[in-house]
Design a protein that fits this description.
Elements (H helix, E strand, L loop, with lengths): L14 H5 L3 H13 L3 H16 L13
Helix pairs in contact: 2-3
Amino acid sequence: MPQIFKRGHAEDWTLDRVARLSAEEIKRLRENAARLNEPDVVNLCDQELKGRRARPARKPPASSSAR
C-alpha cells in the first residue's frame, strides 16, 4: 500500500550525525524539528546538548615559546 502522506527526512537523523553539528546548528535543528512535530529529532538534539554540558571543555593546546 503506498503512503498517502509525504514523510519528512526525520529518520535520516542519528545521534552521531547530530553530534557533528555545532551547538548553534543543533539548536536550530531542534527548533525546526519541534515546529514540524518530529519528537525523535528533538530528543536527539536534547541528548547531544545535554551531553555537551556534561563534558568538560577542551583546553586549548599549550603554546611552546621556547627561545
